[in-house]
Structure formats: structure tokens, C-alpha cells
Amino acid sequence: MNKSLITFFIVAVVFFSGGLLAESTNKSASQSEFLNGDARADAPELAYRGDYGVGVRTITVHHPDQLDMKNYEKSPNRYDRPLTLEVWYPANIPEGAVQLTTYSDVLGQGPNDPERPLIPFEFPGRALRDAGVKTGETFPLVIVSHGYAGSRVLLTYLTENLASKGYVVAAIDHTDSTHADATAFASTLVNRALDINFVLNYMAEGDLAAIVDADKTAVIGYSMGGYGTLIAAGAGVSKTADVNDFVPGNEMERFQAGNPQYKAFLDPRIKAVVPMAPWGNGANVKKPTWDAAGLQGIDIPSLFIVGDQDRTSGFKGVEFLFKNAVKSDRYMLVYQNGIHEIAVNPTPAIAKDHFREYMHYQEPVWDNRRCNNINQHFITAFLGIHLKGLNEYQPYLDVITMANDAEPKTPEYWKGFKPWTAVGLELHHMKTVD
């Protein structure tokens, strides 16, 4: 092997390992790389990171006495359900320390699928592993729920960004639903909202409780995470929905609209929700999960995000959710010609040789880094208003519905966007109806 190839190999190992070498050497080169979540030159104003240093921890918790839905058909046993969390938080960054870490995930969808084998990979992020917390103040809580299959590090572009703006962000690996362990779909349907509420309680009482203001909590959910987010927000499931048939033992009854058990389950500390391409009322669903009556249970602000060519959750289905959540002050951000992947990190480099996994991340029309910046911008404004009372963010949401109808450098052009950079976007707003 010649000297140049050896040098290339060493550089590649250092960059992708994200270990001590990546955090202690070649600081300027590492920080100059474009990492997930970084702002492009055309990023809207609120996409840029905030003033807080960002720490990250991995935490394993157990939700006691839960139904084992994966083995329910054989015997409806109960177990302590394991959940792995990735938690980002405002941190004290020691002088000279580099905010770089490594996240691990796999390509594929569950074990023993020859068409989608599990392939481990790593990627870098801008946070300091196990950094000390920023003391002396408390921060609103944001819970993030991934898709099926997905992972707790599927939206690191957003989780790191929010932590830099003064939020504690807890992303869940939902057991039986991750890239590595996706199995029984019934487990996903039953456990999503249960996991969300359990993690809210854990974060309010756990090791980071001193800096968490759990009374100001938002939930962000993508795809099946959006499904769980809507249930956690008050959208009671229809008695005729397909999901009731997918789950054995009438276990979905606890989430049905009008059930007192469901009403008692809802956590009033959840003050806002961001369903991103939420599954349940569109493509591949014959009997929708929610009807108009059930959606009236959402009485907190909501921001729906969707592509108008989404074939997984179905744009029309998401539009129905938006229009019929009439007791919510709600927005819907639409990516024209976007499909289902408008919410996720850019495609990992390893996926280039695996088309199915490539398309698990990649938008065919949009640049995912561009989507990431737009999502950061609008979610920053939305959560800033509803969790922090930052009303100066309201003008970023009070924009003309169709960005293409506004001329750059005019008062009508979308606030925070550079000329021509809002092309292809829509932002709809519907106020509450008594």
C-alpha cells in the first residue's frame, strides 16, 4: 500500500469513528465538515443554531409492567419494556472542548429480512458526549418519536438544533420498532403514546429533572411517531379504524375517542405537538384511524409538516387531520413535490449502494439538507411561541400561504427567507373553532 493510500485510510478512520481521536485532534478540520443540521448558505433565519452549548447522553430506562405485544398471540404476558433514549440538553462546554460526537444506527428493517439486511453505520454530530448540564435555569422538554422502522438518531439535525436554543430533547428508540428490531406492528400501534407519556414522566423525575420544565412539553413525531404524537395530544381513535383489527385482544380500546380511560391517560403537560408526515389516515389505510369527532380532542397548538406527494402517510390523509383538528390553533407546512422523507436526516453515505435504504432517507426532488433547515426554522418559531412565549417569532408564521405568490424583496415575501429561497413551500393556518 502506498503512502497516500495509508494517509487516506487513517483520515477516514479518524473522521468516521467519532471517538477520542475525532474529539481531541484536528479540531479545525473536523469542525469544517458539513454535518447533519448545519445551515446551508440559503438557510432561513431561524435555522441557525442557538447560543447554548449542546451535551448528549444515552440513557436506558424500563417501562414497568407493559404488555409484550410481540409475543401476545402466544401468551399475553407483561414485562418491563426497555427503551433507549438519546437526550440532548444545554450544556457547559469546557474551554477547548470540541462539540463532536458519533451516533450509531443500522440500515435495514428488523432482523432476518434478506431484502433489507442490517448494516451498521456511524455518523458524526455536533454535541459533546456526557457534558455537564447548564445549571441555574430550566428548559422546556421536547420528546421525539421516530417512524417505523426508525431510530432515536433519525432526526439529529433537529434535536441538536433545539438543544442549542434552550430545550431538553429526548428521542426514543421504540422497542420492536427500530431499524434493528422492527417486528410486530401491533407493538408499535399500542406502545407509541404509552412510551411518550412514560418518557415525559421519566424526564420530569430523572437525572436531568433539575433542568427540565416538564410543564412545558412538546412532542415531535415522524410517520408512526406522528401517529403516536396525535394520540398523546388527544386524538381519540375511531371505533371502526383498521388499527383495532391489527391489534389483538381489543388492546386499542384504551385509545378510543369517548373512552374515559383514554381521557384520563392524556397528560396536560403536553402543550404543543409537531406531527411530521403522520401515519394513520391515508395511504394503505382502508378505515381511517381518526374521524372528525376524534380529532376534536386535540385542543393544543399543532404544526403539521408534509409533502404533497407523500405516498406513505398520504397527503390527503394528513390534510384531513389538519382541517378537522378544529379545536387546535394549527399550521400545516407543505413541501410541494415532497414525499414521505421530508423530516429525516440526509442519507448516510453507506446507503448509496443500497437503493431501498437510500430511499428510506432521500427526497427525490428536495435536498434533505434544505428540508432540514426549513424544518429547523419553522419548528423554532412554533415552539418558541408556544413553549417559551416568544411572541416575536409570530411574524415568521404570519406569512402568505403560497410562497410562490410572493415577490422577493417585497413585504409579502416570507419573513426570514432570502430572495427566491421559499420557492415550493406552503404554510397554511387555521384557527380554533368553538
**Helical element count?**
12
Largest sheet: 11 strands, mixed
Number of DSSP E strands: 13
Task: Tell me what portion of residues adopts beta-strand conformation.
Answer: 15-25%
- Say which CATH homologous superfamily is assigned: Alpha/Beta hydrolase fold, catalytic domain
Could you outline the blueprint of secondary structure elements for this entry?
Elements: H1 3-17, H2 20-24, H3 27-32, E1 53-67, E2 78-92, E3 101-107, E4 119-125, E5 128-129, E6 132-133, E7 139-145, H4 156-163, E8 168-173, H5 185-205, E9 212-222, H6 224-233, H7 242-246, H8 260-265, E10 270-276, H9 292-295, E11 302-307, H10 315-324, E12 330-335, H11 355-358, H12 368-388, E13 425-430
Parallel strand pairs: 1-5, 7-8, 7-9, 9-10, 10-11, 11-12
Antiparallel strand pairs: 1-2, 2-6, 2-8, 3-4, 12-13
Describe this structure in words.
The chain is an alpha/beta fold and 434 residues long. The protein has one domain (34-383): 3-Layer(aba) Sandwich (Rossmann fold). 26% of the residues lie in helices and 22% in strands. The protein contains 12 helices and 13 strands.
